[in-house]
């Protein structure tokens, strides 16, 4: 794993991108502490879409995190329209 300061990274960005594409992890530091990490990107066709179970679980978690307003759907939509959303 290679470490570079922000200034070094700025001056050698093309080389750091080449290194990351080649599989090397590159860490960029700010004031001596890790601030960013460059890793090879997977091509979109290599990325696996999430399973339906994962998507549904994330939606359930999102729904649970939104507080109930006590308004009906129609009233909520009217309120949002009135507020300009």
TrEMBL record:
Q: Which InterPro entries match?
A: Antitoxin_Phd/YefM (IPR006442), phD-YefM_TA_antitoxins (IPR051416), YefM-like_sf (IPR036165)
Family under the similarity heading: Belongs to the phD/YefM antitoxin family.
Q: What is this protein called?
A: Antitoxin
**What job does the chain carry out?**
Antitoxin component of a type II toxin-antitoxin (TA) system.
- Classify the source by domain of life: Bacteria
